[in-house]
């Protein structure tokens, strides 16, 4: 009797992974996400592994999760996967206060970001 299953959020030959609470600004995270958009998964993982950017490690984890979802949940061929989408958005923001001179204070903003990675199985031509 229960509820119907929710429809898939991605296409038939696609798999999805979401990093919901990545510590850092969306602007910095998007610079790293740009490096992997449209590339083969193996190449994207190598780029992220050797990137000097701090956010690259978090992006690599989300991408590895998307590959694992594709392999285990959707029975897709790992060698034929490409990164079809890597979108970034803002998440929550922690607000802290720092004391300053003359009894004043300043707001410190500690942003979090969301990352959505979709991998797609590429058809061989």
UniProtKB/TrEMBL annotation:
The role this protein plays is: The globular domain of the protein is located near the polypeptide exit tunnel on the outside of the subunit, while an extended beta-hairpin is found that lines the wall of the exit tunnel in the center of the 70S ribosome.
Quaternary data: Part of the 50S ribosomal subunit.
- Which species is this UniProt entry from? Sphingomonas sabuli
Can you name this protein?
Answer: Large ribosomal subunit protein uL22
The answer to keyword rRNA-binding applying to this record is yes
Pfam families for the chain = Ribosomal_L22
Work out whether the entry's keyword set contains Methyltransferase: no
Q: Which GO terms describe its biological process?
A: translation
| GO cellular component terms, A-Z | cytosolic large ribosomal subunit
Give the keywords, sorted.
Ribonucleoprotein, Ribosomal protein, RNA-binding, rRNA-binding
Q: Which GO terms describe its molecular function?
A: rRNA binding; structural constituent of ribosome
**What Gene3D superfamilies does the record point to?**
Ribosomal protein L22/L17
Ranges in a coiled coil: none
Family from the record: Belongs to the universal ribosomal protein uL22 family.
Q: Which InterPro entries match?
A: Ribosomal_uL22 (IPR001063), Ribosomal_uL22_bac/chlpt-type (IPR005727), Ribosomal_uL22_bac/org-type (IPR047867), Ribosomal_uL22_sf (IPR036394)
């Amino acid at each position: 009797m229960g509820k119907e299953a929710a429809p898939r959020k991605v296409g038939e030959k696609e798999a999805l992974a979401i990093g919901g609470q990545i510590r850092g600004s969306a602007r910095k995270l998007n610079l790293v996400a740009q490096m992997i958009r449209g590339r083969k998964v193996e190449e994207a993982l190598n780029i992220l592994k050797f990137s000097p950017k701090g956010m690259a490690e978090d992006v690599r984890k989300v991408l590895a999760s998307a590959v694992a979802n594709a392999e285990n949940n959707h029975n897709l061929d790992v060698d034929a996967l490409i990164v079809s989408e890597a979108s970034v958005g803002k998440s929550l923001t922690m607000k802290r206060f720092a004391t300053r001179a003359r009894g004043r204070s300043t707001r410190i903003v500690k942003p979090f970001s969301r990352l959505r990675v979709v991998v797609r199985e590429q058809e061989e031509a």
